[in-house]
Amino acid sequence: MHVTGTATQTAPAPSETHAVPAGDPQGDTGRHARRFGLPVATALVMGNIIGGGIFLLPASVAPYGTVSLVAFGVLTVGAIALALVFGRLAERDPRTGGPYVYAREAFGDFAGFLAAWAYWITTWVSNAALAVAAVGYLDVLIPVSGHRWSACLAALAIQWLPVLANFAGSRYVGAVQLVSTVLKFAPLLLVAVGGLFFFDPHKLGPFHAGGGSTAGAVSACAALLLFSYLGVESAAVSAGEVKNARRNVGRATVIGTAGAALVYLLGTLSVFGTVAHDRLVTSTAPFSDAVNAMFGGSWGGWAVALAALVSIAGCLNGWTLLSAQTPYAAAQDGLFPAAFTRRRRGVPTVGVGVTVALASLLTVYNYLAGSAKVFDMLVLVTTFTATVPYLLATSAQVFHLVSGHHDRVDRTRLVRDCVVTAIAVAFSVWLVAGAGYAAVYQGVLFLFAGIVVYAVMAGRRRGARA
Questions:
Q1: pLDDT at site 57
Q2: Distance separating alpha carbons of residues 180 and 203, to the nearest angstrom
Q3: Which residues of the chain have pLDDT under 50?
Q4: What is the pLDDT of residues 257-293, one digit of tens each?
Q5: Is the overall model pTM greater than 0.85, yes or no?
Q6: HEC sequence for the chain
């Protein structure tokens, strides 16, 4: 066990008291609680990486030209390196909590708490953002945005439906995640693969449409695309619910990240080759325009809106589970309130309830304020808070490599791990830089608020031991 405030702390072995059993001690075993196999764990990663943003990405990067595809490639290398690091860390310690577990084992309670706190903020603010974004797609099918309260109620309903699946048990979470991932990939693959048969090189536009150097253009594109890969940690965070986690978490993370990257790259390339560049720059629905260009008619808007809703629903389903997993792991170690340890049917129900309540309040506040500025600022904060656990986790891997906690015999594997970890660290730092000054400033304030919470929890634990 860690002792707060000491520099020479000994981390427990994965097989000691923190190991996650196949069933929960509070009785969450049974037919409603089922551990995830490799397919569901992979779907969790892919479903959480690919939300609704992919449907706007081609138009967002079109002003830079096809150089944005180079930026995609660079980011993909970094994301896969990060996925490989998570796989190696999960192989060492396959407990629920992901970055929180890795940071706490390497650096102690305070670092672990910061990872858990930052990740928790990321999840519930992102859930609110996803629900509000979904309303925009729902409006294409069923007009709801004409009145503020109808749009607000629609956003709340979209948030709470995945919560019901979570309350039903991990068995249903996995089923919803698998089905939604398959359904969302059908239209995306239609454009990504089908678009190649309608590809017209003359519609690509210039390689470098903006001014300045090519390297500057790649960095500018990367700033827009950096957070397209948030979610690579999904299987690691839920490692305690994954069968044979030491083996399957790494595989699911790499396969899911590579699959998402392939869809991103092929989808963007197909849209670039089917929609004229001058039109794509001003498009508000690039995938709809691509479908209309491929097959004619004007039904693309309906099809893409429906696909986006399915995509966001699946993403919310997975993020709702993740939003409760990290507080659950931290609460087991006394770093979050003990109520977060309560589980039912394989799901930390208190964590799910608190998270959706906070996300719902934020959603209502957004609509009551009548302006997206405050909400946009909070969403921007998540672009920074999400990088804190990444940087702590990759630093934990650096710690293990430098301290000698690695395979001393297999030198090839050691060299490979060092190279991959260096790329992952650089990628994590790049994520922080890409968040921007405003996001870093606001995000640090959120982290400082967490320090107060940590002080309260640490004081209570010391008082209990006295």
A1: 77
A2: 32
A3: 1-33
A4: 888 888 888 888 888 888 888 888 877 678 777 888 8
A5: no
A6: CCCCCCCCCCCCCCCCCCCCCCCCCCCCCCCCCCCECHHHHHHHHHHHHCCCHHHCHHHHHHHHCCHHHHHHHHHHHHHHHHHHHHHHHHHHCCCCCCHHHHHHHHHCHHHHHHHHHHHHHHHHHHHHHHHHHHHHHHHHHCCCCCCHHHHHHHHHHHHHHHHHHHHHCHHHHHHHHHHHHHHHHHHHHHHHHHHHHHCCHHHCCCCCCCCCCHHHHHHHHHHHHHHHHCCCCHHHHCHHHECCHHHHHHHHHHHHHHHHHHHHHHHHHHHHHHCCHHHHCCCCCHHHHHHHHHHCCCCHHHHHHHHHHHHHHHHHHHHHHHHHHHHHHHHHCCCCCHHHHCCECCECHHHHHHHHHHHHHHHHHHHHHCCCHHHHHHHHHHHHHCHHHHHHHHHHHHHHHHHCCCCCCCHHHHHHHHHHHHHHHHHHHHHHHHHCHHHHHHHHHHHHHHHHHHHHHHHHHHHHHC
Structure tokens of 163?
Answer: 């919560």
The token pair that represents 232 in the structure block: 């690579």
